[in-house]
Amino acid sequence: MALLCFAVRVAAQDVVLTDTLETVVVTGTGTQHLLKDAPVQTEVISGRMLRQFGGRSIEDILGSLSASFAFNEGDMGSQMQLNGLGNSYILVLIDGKRLTGDVGGQNDLSLIDPHNIERIEVVKGASSALYGSDAIAGVVNIITKRHDEGVMVENATRYGSYNDVRQHNSVGVAWGRWKSLTGFQLQHSDGWQNTSMENTPSSATPVTDSRSMTVNKHTSWQLSEMLTFVPTEGLELYAAGTIHRKGIYRPKGKYPKYDVKTFDLKYENASAAIGGRWKTGRGDLLSLDVDWAQHAYYHAFTSTTLTEGFDATGRLILDFPYFEGQRQLQSNQQRTMVQLKGVFDLAACHRLSAGMEARFDHLKAPTSVEGGTAKDNTEAVYVQDEWSWLCWLQLTGGLRLCRNEGFGWRLTPKVSAMVKVGDVRLRGTWSQGFKTPALKEMNYRYIREMTNIVMYLGNKDLKAQTSNYFSLGGEWTHRGFNVTVTGYLNRVDHMIALVTVPRTAAPEAYRIQYGEQLNKVRRYENMEDARTTGLDVSVSYTRKEWTIGGSYSYLDTKAHVYDSDRERLERVVIDGMAYHKGNVFLTWEHRFAPSYALGLGLYGRMSSRRYYQIDGNGKPFQIWRLTTTHNLGHSRTMTYRLEAGIDNIFNYSDRTPHGLHLGTTTPGTTFYATLTIRFKTGKNLKFSNNNKFNSKKQQSDEED
């Protein structure tokens, strides 16, 4: 990755964020630019937008405030999609570091505390020159809040319908050359059921009183610590770590073949990181980061269950018994990364970024991977140069050389340009992507026993994926108006997707075990070609206390896969595609007195039908939300804020039977309220960079 962590921190310390267009962004080039002058098109969800919206989760925030995203939340992860490409093609960063929720691609976004987000930056399209694998669809960089002064204690408690609880606590201490920020978050919901209808195989009697839930009861908590030491001005060292636990509780149904759940799901995540950054006297930036992350997933049995397991000799048994209270490891994925980065100002109009990284992946899955374990490692070096010889033209070019243990060497370039003409910015990008198959895509196999018994197979013969991304867009800003239009084409060769294959592809032991109950076999395969094309439009207008705007995303996908039975290419959709998505918003803020300010917001999001290869399509929908914010005054040490709102005003819910795809999982109209209390006191750090900015920025945050 480029010098992202480094630039994020410097941007946060060196620039006052007066409004959205003056925000400093770092994700597109890995270096700091004002948003209006960023050479790579960057979409920003600002801190002000986040506070006005009051989202309960990162899925809620991205799905409602950006038309380019779509989600289909489930027990196994968030199933995010950006401009037609799914989880495994989207790189999610937290302060420039990869989120490791599942190396197989189903990122668990509950790892992210919404209350701790300063802003979100989104760069669409292949970014492999900077970020390597996982960035073919784009990059989502979540930049968290920082604490640089005295003592800070914050509590935020949100309560909503269906016993939805979101708890946030943080304690920050800055003393001399040391800073510590400790965070805690808790998320809980009792879940809900939109329908009791269960989809069943055509030969079976439909179930009309299933106990399956649309969203299962779940609880998660996370504890984090960031410790920073500033031995001298310009040098900062840090150590950080997190512990995360999550449980998903599934009700036991009445029908053994369809909706009986004999185990709950448990997740155990952890991470640790150390590193440092150094800003030299001439302004160059150097950083070193070493981080490790683990994502472990278990079945916690609630009744006696016959499943896969090993006997005392290590032999795999398909009818191995597990009893109530026992649990079975499904997968334990670990990733270690080492990154060295630098940014060098070679001349007034010439900035060079360079770096190297090494990534080591390890997967342990005793019952799902042949031999029980699999591993992979990738090394890369990159270089990027930014030229700004002319005041109206900026050019950026980059190259990344990557070597993967199983797939060899690959060179990926990226070129971007921006032309400034008065209030207009024209941007164009061409970039190549390179993504090797994930360990799970190659090695993992498992059975899904729901309305149908479906087997999923990895494929060791997969090829690496490559892409060519082209985009051309324009932005116009004038007297409160901002209009952005961007068209794109993303061609992906050897795209990996789950494809239904003949039942004979399943291992013989499984065919004997399940017989005719084995309804489908799906295997990861390379498509012959895949293409996404689209148009993104966003419009906003700000006038004093009012802001109105919205965005629209048009998407079309085409893909072909070889049908070995029919010996011909078959055209298929990329799962989850919707031709049309959009969102609109209207906000108003007014300060009635020094001790009270009121904010109102109306938000709408909508999507046309979402298409899938199997299990039906997701219904179109539109959902409207009303929010209120109340800043209840602040003193030198205390601030108080109340948020309250109604989600899904018109009470829409998707009652598609369980087992088929949903347009949205919303239960209908829900209510929520959040109370935030913050205590802060103390002076700036003696050795922090640009203390005057820190003080003004923190005061501005309180007034907002």
Characterization of this structure:
With 704 residues, this protein is mainly beta. The protein has a single domain (4-703), classed as Maltoporin, Chain A. 8% of the residues lie in helices and 57% in strands. The strands form seven sheets. It has a 22-stranded antiparallel beta barrel, surrounded by four helices. A five-stranded mixed beta sheet has the order 3-9-10-7-8. It has a four-stranded mixed beta sheet with strand order 26-27-31-30. A hairpin with a 3-residue loop joins strand 11 (149-160) and strand 12 (164-175).
Structural class: mainly beta
Q: Any idea of the CATH topology?
A: Maltoporin, Chain A
Number of helices: 7
| β-sheet strand percentage | over 45%
**Total tally of structural domains:** 1
* N/C terminus separation: 33 Å
What average pLDDT do the residues reach? 86
CATH structural architecture? Beta Barrel
Number of DSSP strand runs = 41
CATH top level label: Mainly Beta
